[in-house]
Amino acid sequence: MKVEILYEDTDVLVCVKPYGVPVQGDRTRDMDLLDHLKNVISERENLEEEPYLAMVHRLDRPVGGIMVFARKPRAASRLSDQVQDGTMVKYYQAVVTGLMPEEAGVLTDYLLKDGRTNTSRVVKAGTKGAKRAELEYEVLDEMETDQGVLSYVLIRLVTGRHHQIRAQLAHCGCGIYGDTKYGASSPKGRKNGGQIALFATRLEFVHPGNGERMVFKTEPEGSAFDILDLEEY
Asked: In order of start, what are the domains of the chain with their CATH numbers?
C-alpha cells in the first residue's frame, strides 16, 4: 500500500486515504490504513513498541481522500471535539447520476442505520434511532454522456453520519456514480475497482497543539473520476 502523507508533526498526521482501503480493521482482515500508518511510523523511527495513532473521523472503504490522525491522546481529544462541534470542515467532490434539485442547496434528512446490511436510509423525522443529517452542495458542471446525464458536485458535510453523502444523494435521485450499494450505475465496460466517484478533497481544522488553522486540499483521483477533464476546473 502506498499512502501519500501531506503533513506530519508530533501532534497530527494528515494523509490521502487510497480507495478501497478500510480505515481500520474489519472482518475482511485486509490491511487497513490505521495499522499501515503505525507500521510506517514504527519502521521510520525504529520503535520497539506500537506508536500511538488515533482515528478521529472516518471515510467509507470505497471513498478516497484527505484524513487527519492524532499522534497524541490530547490531540485526539481536541480533534474529536472539533468533529463533534462542526469546526472541523470537510469538503468532498462527487460525480452523481442525474441532475441535482437546484444549482446549490442544502439537503436535510433523517438517517437510520441498518447494521445487517451496513447501509443507511432516509426515514421520517421522529423515527426511533434516526439521526439528523445535513449537507450543503454546489453543482460545478452537468454532462451529457453515453451513460446518461451526470453532475459534478462540490459537497460540504455539515453532520457526519454513517454513509451520509451516499444515502442522502441516492434518496434525492442522484446516487454517487459507481456506488452500486445505493443503486447507482457503474462505468460501462469495466469494474469500479473498489472505487466510487466520491473523494474528500479539502479538510480544515485547528491544530490541537499550536491553535493554527490548518487547510489541506487535493484533487479527486482514481478511475471513478476518469469521466471528468479535471484540468478544466
From this structure: 4-224 (3.30.2350.10)
